[in-house]
Amino acid sequence: MDFTLPDSALAVQRGIADICARYDLDYWQRCETEKRWPEEVWAELAKGGWLGLAVPEEYGGGGQGLLELAVATETLSASGSAGGSAFTYVLTPGFGAMTLARHGSRWQREELLPKLATGELETCFALTEPDAGSNALGISTFARRDGGEYVVNGQKIWITGVQRATWMLLVTRTVPAAEARPRTNGLTVFLVNVPEAVAAGQLSFRPIPKMGANTTPSNMVFVDDLRVPAANVVGEVDQGALVLWDILNPERVLLAASALGGAEVALKVAVQYAKEREVFGRPIGANQAIAFPLAQVKAKIELARLMLYKAAWLFDNHRPCGTEANIAKLTASQAAWEAADHAFQTHGGMAYSLEYPVARLLADARIGKVAPVTEELLLNYLATQVLGLPRSF
């Protein structure tokens, strides 16, 4: 077994790190406070070709896989962006480029992939609904065939990045959930041109005020008699579950990578403070009550990283990776929360001061325990699907 990263991933790691070295924690704090997208970093990533990692070479991309995307996300996150980095690599390279490279039609690949590779186009993903929550198979947004088009109605919630997106991957029901046999049947994924739909009054959205990750707004989305050409179906009608799994597993991996990077930066901030802050005549890091929890966090980060890279490798090699992706997401999010929580405790009362990045890191770390799927549902998956325990519903 070879645990070294391939040269392709190491090159990504170095390239992203070189860009990130020009943007410190204060930069990311300003982006969060001002609630603005990190335009400067995005522009540099686009210029360097780092947004097109998952786009096949024939469409102008790097021809790399999920492992390289995960390394890019982790490196960006560890530089100081923490949770904000997830959206950089999930929304467009993950949701858009990787999905279309695997499931897009010929025109979808030829028209969109080159522009996704350069950052000229951006994408978002709309699955979650107010009444369905984490029950992805229970969504009610419905698409009805009408000649050469589909007419779609419904609502979505917590849809991030709509404001910047040119295209939305919209998950609908084309067979009602109550009639679908099996339950995974009857899902269809559409590409929706966001600016055109908004201009036609068929799509609208409202930002949701939130406690963290404000570099990218999350929204309520309203779909009213939205007309989508049948040619905009991604994959096959009624077989959207096959597309969905290739969206959700990479999403878990990339969010795990973001969480790991957030854990690393929180740990770095805590260790630095523990070395410099002196109380009773010695650095507080000399106290085991401070040092041991931080050492535990480091161990958990390294363990989660092994599963993260394994899950990405399995996906890239077209092998089942659901269990590994879920474990990576679970353990990385737990490590991120523990790292941020201990960083907060290490700083004591100063953690409340916005002169330090700890409050932002804590808010970002908390997201991973509930989104895009709760910790409890990840554990339920492991309990029922891996251990074979009885289902509770």
Automatic annotation (TrEMBL):
Its EC number is 1.3.8.7. Residues 11-120 form the Acyl-CoA dehydrogenase/oxidase N-terminal domain. Its cofactor is FAD. Residues 124-225 form the Acyl-CoA oxidase/dehydrogenase middle domain. Pfam families: Acyl-CoA_dh_1, Acyl-CoA_dh_M, Acyl-CoA_dh_N. Residues 239-386 form the Acyl-CoA dehydrogenase/oxidase C-terminal domain. Keywords: FAD, Flavoprotein, Oxidoreductase. Belongs to the acyl-CoA dehydrogenase family. This is Acyl-CoA dehydrogenase. It comes from Streptosporangium brasiliense. The lineage of its organism: Bacteria, Bacillati, Actinomycetota, Actinomycetes, Streptosporangiales.
